[in-house]
Amino acid sequence: MKGLYCRAGAEPKFVIQETSLPEAVGSHQVRVQVKACGLSPLDLKLLDDVGIKRDLIPVGREVAGVVLQVGAKVSFFHPEDAVVGILPLDSPCSGLCDVIDIDEHYLVQKPEKLSSVCVAGALRDALCAYTALHTHARVAAGHTLLVLDGASSFGLMCIQLACYHGVKVFTTSHSPQQHAFLEQLRPSVAKVVPVFNGPSDLLPAVLEETGGLGVDIVVDSGVRLQEVESEEAKLLPHKHDIISVLGVGGHWVTTHKDLQLDPPDCRLLHLKSASMTFLNHEVWTASSAQQGRYLHILKDIVEKMSAGVLRPQPEEAVPLYEATVMMESVQRHQKRKAVVQL
Q1: What pTM did the predictor assign?
Q2: Burial 273-310 (b: 16+ CB within 10 A, else e)
Q3: Are residues 301 and 310 in contact, defined by beta-carbon separation less than 8 angstroms?
Q4: What is the pLDDT of residues 297-324, one digit of tens each?
Q5: Closest residue by Cα to residue 87 from 68, 67, 57, 63
Q6: Nearest 5 degrees, angle CA 170-CA 171-CA 173?
Q7: What pLDDT does 290 receive?
């Protein structure tokens, strides 16, 4: 069978490779026939940091499928169960293989009416949103939240999850089309701030909506560290603006991996008694310390998707032979998400 792999180097190259599984299934493993697999950008630096060094790195980790066979000590699943999960960082399997082996503790049951393509395309972003709002920010009814780039897959999951919990949500749009889309969202957000003409309107707009108090939580989708950067980066807020929109005791969850705060930024955070955390959703599969909590989160996510609380933007599924080109596009961030249907 074939799988998608990355040959790391100065310029990552994605290739389709033949692969095989052992005849016997591990005692705690589940053999799954994959129906759909989500493609997300590959973080080669993170893999290097945690000591995963391979000539060929498996690609495609968000999978949905049907159980074919279970190991001798598997207790959660049976053949023909529909399942969904995220392969761990050190998994030798590519999620684009027809059949994969995965430990039962990385899977949850998939509700019958939830499509494999939908859940495979949105699971990672929903997990990020859940981690940002619940694990880091401790969101609660009555809080105010600023979600930057709300029309992105991750931003949309944050907005819907926050609205479900009774949070007042503000967000930003990066184009007139995104602005119109966010204005029509149901449940609706309190304010959509357009930043496609420049992010300078963000701070006054949010302070006006909150009576000058600022918001309780900010979740970003990237930060502009300097004044002169790429055209895409110019749509992102400056780190000082994010700190400025935080209220007293506020919390900033950042997706920026290399964020550095200058002494004036730290001083402003100190004056507000505010805090900041880094969002790294990979910790759930990189460590087994909170495996039970992780499975509870996955189960809650798929149940909310099935109930319509979380409604991801539909992704058009592509066949396996287009996976290489699609993954190259995803890796260059021209397209943030893709789903392959097997």
Answers
A1: 0.90
A2: ebebeebebbebbeeeeeeeebbebbebbbebbbeeeb
A3: yes
A4: 999 999 999 999 999 887 778 888 888 8
A5: 63
A6: 150
A7: 81
